């Protein structure tokens, strides 16, 4: 700030404080087979209603929808879905145009692969605003109209081009125009009945737009005393125009024609095709278009070359299973493909790589040792998420649970497994008996609920972790049976009379291999701290590597850790007992500085769950008064 005149100057001085914001720990991602939905990306849903709209309903051969329902039932709020499939095919139907010799013009696809698309029907009608050039598509599912896309154009340059409008607005279909189909028809603008055949001197201008090149004002030259003379003047003025766009064929102007016959004016583009059109609008001054009744706003009729390329009017064009007859030239039956294999689920993890806000990952119902190994290794490599694993539905004995965990080859502290499966009322109402569901959907929801209520440092277990949406377990475990399961990292779900169905374990599968991260909340707290600091100190990159930077890092990271201490995230009665942050000449030597490195050491005393509450009781001998 320059100081040139005497007075008081106010300057804002940076405090050096850059608050670190804690990352979310409750965003989950499920990988599984769904009825419909995209296969090439992970999408977030925030309710089960939203899940159903995008990914469909319950399936007999998949637990994804059930897991999503139980995730939201048990406190989850944000859920990414990765849909997997093996050989699924999208249903489609191809419709012909309105030319004298019809050709394929528009193909309607179900917007995602699967047999679900075979229940779609398409109605085609003329558009409401411009019935001569536009059209309307009504989309029905199982006979119920769900979407209407009106006032669509077959002109690729139009703002209402069918492909663009449907892509932007439809949740059910995609529309693809056949690029090879075109027309020689030339766009026209025909005046309304009984137009003027003479023009006074002050009404000799109008605005024309030929082949979508852009509006240009023309001025008509004398003589203008008959309809024929006016038509000739229009033709001469338009032919003298220069195209505004390089893509516009010059013939659109040089071969432009205007005529007057049977009491109306007809203006015709000099170049035909799907982009061919003539549009007339009023000039801002000295307007003559109104007197000549040219342009839609003045009672004229304009028809583009693309009008004849519109799909033929008809009802109930069946997507997928249409008979190839009449206006339907081809159709493809939608298919779910074959049962996805484990490699398909494993490939789905790659779609989560760009979703850095994912903290909890599960593959509901795929309860194999290979999948738990893969999921735990994936999360360990990312270092910012945690895998919730299922055992197989048939693993319903203590011995099978033991064999499952001891058979894991990746003892990752970034994974936990839960046992046994749960019983739930069939949400479809088909089965009179409870159905069996994997625990991962319930558990992921419980993680999210405990995180939001108590913090990520609270174990997602105990009487507070009371599971909703279940009526029983496939196997009720006793204390004696859990004695052999808990030490090896099997998190048991149990039933207690006063608490109902609860999660009664909080160990990672690395409970023996990596005792430092034996407990789920310890590992997840470490993830939370690491990722929060990582995001919060990006500003430090390329800063001068000296004491000022080190002090700023100590200040900001220390303030973040103090916030966690006050929230009860650590052991210790004082901050010095709970955590430390060190960044100085001891952590960063001159050799580090020369190499462009600054080292910060952060330590914390994690809270560990009280698994074993021991009450020691003794008799007190009677004493005389």
Automatic annotation (TrEMBL):
What Pfam families does the annotation carry?
Answer: Phage_sheath_1 (PF04984), Phage_sheath_1C (PF17482)
Positions in coiled-coil regions: none
Occurrences of domain Tail sheath protein C-terminal (ranges): 513-618
Please give the superkingdom of this protein's source. Answer: Bacteria
Q: Which PANTHER family match?
A: PHAGE TAIL SHEATH PROTEIN, PTHR35861
By sequence similarity, the record places it as follows: Belongs to the myoviridae tail sheath protein family.
Q: What is this protein called?
A: Phage tail sheath family protein
Organism expressing this protein natively: Candidatus Manganitrophus noduliformans
């Amino acid at each position: 700030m320059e100081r040139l005149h005497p007075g008081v100057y106010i300057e804002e001085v940076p405090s050096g404080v850059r608050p670190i914001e804690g990352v979310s720990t409750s965003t989950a991602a499920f990988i599984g087979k769904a009825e419909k939905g995209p296969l090439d990306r992970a999408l977030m849903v925030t309710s089960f209603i939203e899940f159903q709209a995008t990914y469909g309903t319950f399936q007999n051969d998949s637990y994804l929808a059930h897991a999503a329902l139980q995730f939201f039932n048990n406190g989850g709020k944000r859920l990414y879905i990765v849909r997997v499939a093996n050989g699924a095919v999208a249903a489609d139907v191809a419709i012909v145009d309105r030319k004298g010799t019809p050709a394929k013009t528009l193909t309607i696809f179900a917007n995602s692969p699967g047999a679900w698309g075979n229940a779609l029907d398409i109605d085609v009608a003329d558009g409401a605003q411009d019935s001569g050039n536009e059209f309307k598509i009504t989309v029905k599912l199982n006979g119920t109209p769900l979407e209407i896309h009106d006032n669509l154009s077959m002109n690729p340059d139009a703002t209402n081009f069918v492909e663009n409008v449907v892509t932007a607005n439809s949740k059910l279909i995609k529309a693809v125009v056949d690029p090879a189909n075109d027309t020689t028809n030339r766009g026209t603008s025909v005046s309304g009945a009984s137009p003027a055949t003479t023009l006074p001197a002050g009404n000799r201008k109008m605005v024309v737009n030929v082949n979508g090149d852009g509006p240009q004002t023309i001025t008509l030259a004398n003589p203008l005393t008959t309809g024929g003379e006016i038509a000739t003047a229009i033709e001469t003025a338009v032919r003298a125009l220069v195209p505004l766009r390089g893509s516009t064929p010059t013939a659109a102007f040089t071969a432009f024609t205007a005529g007057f016959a049977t009491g109306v004016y007809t203006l015709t583009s000099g170049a035909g095709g799907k982009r061919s059109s003539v549009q007339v609008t009023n000039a801002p001054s000295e307007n003559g278009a109104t007197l000549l009744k040219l342009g839609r706003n003045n009672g004229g009729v304009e028809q583009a070359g693309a009008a004849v390329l519109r799909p033929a009017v008809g009802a109930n064009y069946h997507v997928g299973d249409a008979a190839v007859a009449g206006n339907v030239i081809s159709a493809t039956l939608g298919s779910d493909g074959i049962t996805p294999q484990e490699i398909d689920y494993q490939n789905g993890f790659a779609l989560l790589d760009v979703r850095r806000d994912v903290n909890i990952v599960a593959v509901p119902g795929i309860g194999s040792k290979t999948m738990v190994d893969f999921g735990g290794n994936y999360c360990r490599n990312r270092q910012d998420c945690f895998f919730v694993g299922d055992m197989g539905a048939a693993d319903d004995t203590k011995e099978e649970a033991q064999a499952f965990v001891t058979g894991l080859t990746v003892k990752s502290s970034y994974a936990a497994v839960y046992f046994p499966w749960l019983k739930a009322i069939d949400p479809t109402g088909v089965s009179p008996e409870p159905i069996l569901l994997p625990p991962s959907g319930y558990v992921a929801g419980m993680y999210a609920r405990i995180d939001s209520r108590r913090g990520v440092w609270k174990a997602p277990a105990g009487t507070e972790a009371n599971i909703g949406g279940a009526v029983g377990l496939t196997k009720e475990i006793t204390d004696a049976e859990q004695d052999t399961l808990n030490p090896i990292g099997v998190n048991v779900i149990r039933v207690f009379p006063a608490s109902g169905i609860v999660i009664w374990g909080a160990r990672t599968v690395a409970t023996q291999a990596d005792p430092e991260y034996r407990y789920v909340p310890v590992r997840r707290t470490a993830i939370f701290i690491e990722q929060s600091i990582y995001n919060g100190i990006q500003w430090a990159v390329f800063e001068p590597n000296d004491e000022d930077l080190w002090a700023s890092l100590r200040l900001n990271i220390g303030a973040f850790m103090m916030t966690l201490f006050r929230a009860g995230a650590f052991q210790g009665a004082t901050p010095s007992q709970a955590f430390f942050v060190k960044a100085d000449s001891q952590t960063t030597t001159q050799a580090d500085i020369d190499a462009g490195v600054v080292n910060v050491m952060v330590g914390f005393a994690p809270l560990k769950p009280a698994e074993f509450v021991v009450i020691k009781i003794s008799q007190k001998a009677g004493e005389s008064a």
